[in-house]
Specification:
The protein is α+β, with helices and mostly antiparallel strands. It is 29% helix and 47% strand. α1 (33-53) runs antiparallel to α2 (92-106).
C-alpha cells in the first residue's frame, strides 16, 4: 500500500489596506410621506454632487438600503425615510474628505467604515506562499522523524478561505464641530490582517 502524509500549512500577515468602504445614511422624519421623500431626495442629490466633486466614480457607489416606515415622536405619528449607500474610496485622504463633507453639507450619518484589500492585492499571494512553505516544512520534519523521504505532492486544497478584516491598532476621531478647520476628520487606516491555510498530501518514499 502506498504511504502518504497529509499536513496543514497556515500563515498570517498584516499590511496597509488599499481601499475603504464607507456606509452613509441619509435619514429624515416628517408628518407626511411627501415631506420625507423630498428631504431625503434633495440631500441624496446633494451627496451625489459631492461624490462627483471628490472624484468618486459611479461604479464605486452602491445602494444598500432604501426604507420608508411609520414611527412615533412625542406621541405623534411620523414617517421615516432612509437612504443608505456604500461608497468605496481608494485613499486615506479621500475617506476624511468624504466623511467631513457628508456630515457637514448633507447632514448624513456615517454608519460604518471598513478597510479592505482587493482580491489581487499582492499580500494575498505572499500569505498563500508562506502557508504553502509552512505545509512543506511540516511534512519534511515528519518524514525525517519517520525515517522516510518526502515524495511528490498528491493533493492540495485550501481548507480555509482568505479572511481580511479590520485591525484597530490606530483609530480616527471626529472634530466636525470646528468649522474653521479644512480637514475636520482625521482617520488612520491601521493594518489589515490576511491569513491563509492549505492542506497538502505528499507521498512518502521508503529509504533505498
Amino acid at each position: 500500500m502506498d504511504s502518504k502524509i497529509k499536513v496543514k500549512g497556515n500563515a498570517k500577515a498584516w499590511g496597509p489596506p488599499d481601499h475603504a468602504k464607507i456606509t452613509i445614511e441619509i435619514k429624515a422624519n416628517a408628518a407626511s410621506e411627501t415631506d420625507v421623500f423630498e428631504d431625503v431626495a434633495t440631500r441624496s442629490k446633494k451627496l451625489e454632487g459631492l461624490l462627483r466633486e471628490l472624484g468618486v466614480p459611479n461604479e464605486a457607489v452602491h445602494s444598500k438600503n432604501v426604507q420608508l416606515r411609520d414611527s412615533w415622536h412625542e406621541g405623534e405619528p411620523r414617517v421615516v425615510a432612509e437612504n443608505e449607500l456604500e461608497v468605496t474610496v481608494p485613499d486615506q485622504d479621500g475617506v476624511g474628505r468624504l466623511i467631513t463633507a457628508a456630515i457637514r453639507e448633507v447632514d448624513a450619518h456615517v454608519k460604518g467604515l471598513t478597510w479592505e484589500l482587493t482580491p489581487d492585492n499582492s499580500l494575498h499571494h505572499d500569505v498563500m506562499l508562506m502557508a504553502t512553505k509552512n505545509a512543506r516544512n511540516k511534512a519534511e520534519a515528519q518524514a525525517e522523524a519517520l525515517g522516510v523521504s518526502l515524495g511528490p505532492v498528491l493533493e492540495v486544497s485550501e481548507w480555509e478561505p482568505y479572511r481580511s478584516f479590520e485591525h484597530h491598532d490606530r483609530l480616527g476621531h471626529f472634530t466636525i464641530a470646528d468649522e474653521s478647520r479644512e480637514a475636520a476628520f482625521q482617520i488612520f487606516e491601521g493594518q489589515v490582517e490576511v491569513d491563509a491555510a492549505i492542506e497538502v498530501t505528499f507521498a512518502l518514499l521508503a529509504p533505498d
